Amino acid sequence: VQLVESGGGLVQPGGSLRLSCVASGFTFSTYAMTWYRQAPGKERELVAGIGSAGGTTDYADSMKGRFTISRDNAKNTVYLQMNSLKPEDTAVYYCNAWNGFFNYWGQGTQVTVSS
Fold first, then answer.
1. 47-71 burial by CB neighbour count: b if 16+ within 10 A, else e?
2. Nearest to 50 by CA among 74, 65, 66, 72
3. Which of 28, 61, 83, 86 is the most exposed place for a label (fewest CB within 10 A)?
4. Torsions phi, psi of 89, nearest 5?
5. 91-98/77-82 β-pairing
6. How far is CA 41 from the centre of its chain?
7. pLDDT value at position 1?
8. pLDDT below 70 — which residues of the chain?
9. DSSP labels for 62-89?
């Protein structure tokens, strides 16, 4: 089982990034997918989640209107489009797969928002 995140990097405030998480080793289309993030010295927090078929999404309040989660089950990939980035969005972003029984994590991708 693997979840591999990519797309992180350094971006200026107000900028955008698109994170990707490619899954392998399990039936991706049967898992809900969630993005979490963890900033230095802080607990890991939920960013956004999407149902297995992509029909339902949920966002943390501070991300609503700025972030969009989506998935492509044909490509075993979940995305996180992040717009209007702020310095407080700086964190390691992780993707998670969960089906009620099994729970998988990626290794994370660093996002740094700084001028």
1. bbbbebeeeeeebeeebeeebbbeb
2. 72
3. 61
4. -85, -5
5. unpaired
6. 20
7. 96
8. none
9. GGTTTEEEEEETTTTEEEEEE-S--GGG
Tokens for 9? 């990097």
Residue linked to tokens 């998935």: 71
Rounded Cα–Cα distance for residues 22 and 5 (Å): 7
> How buried is 81 (Cβ within 10 angstroms: 0-12 exposed, 13-18 middle, 19+ buried)?
middle
For residues 33 and 11, give the distance between their C-alpha atoms in angstroms, rounded to a whole number: 25
Tell me, what's the pLDDT at 54? 86
Strands 91-98 and 17-24: unpaired
Nearest to 60 by CA among 91, 35, 27, 95: 35
